[in-house]
Amino acid sequence: MQPQPQVIGQPAQMQASQFPEGEIFIQKQSSAPSTIGILMIIGGVLGVFGGAWGLITAQDTIALLDDYNTKLDIQIDIPAWYIWLKPVVQLVSGIALIAGGYFLHQRKKIGVFIGLGAMVISAAFAVLESSAMSSVYESLDYPVAAASIGLVFTLFCNAICGLIIAIPLMSNTSNLE
After folding, report:
1. How many domains, in total, are found in the chain?
2. How far apart are CA 92 and CA 97, in angstroms?
3. Other CB atoms closer than 10 Å to residue 152's CB: what's the count?
């Protein structure tokens, strides 16, 4: 004789009636804000180091260009303001990326907007850089289109980085504040 199974506790129908709304599904939070925030911090640190190095070596760069201009028959006309402004912009953009990455890692929506602002600063400077470098290329008898290639490449890279930074805004499970 086989033992009969016995039901202990309440039947399943009674347990389901305790939740009149039905089942509650809990979605796992996306790790995209944390991951992208860390990547932004790494990129920002590299930008800060690059900007600081550019500021440290700006005077030497200007002296080297002056030395080349006296020894060579060709004049390289890179404005001194450009040599000083490029590392400053890189430094500011790097600091903005670090701040945006920190806020995004903390799941704050402002981090996305700060990061996108850093990409806009970088893209705006790329346009300025292209116009400054086109006159340099012209004085060196290089095709002026070479400056446009650099502009297109920089704008493309900034657009891709901007899209990556905006991924947490497009996700339902990122839970940004």
Report:
1. 1
2. 9
3. 12
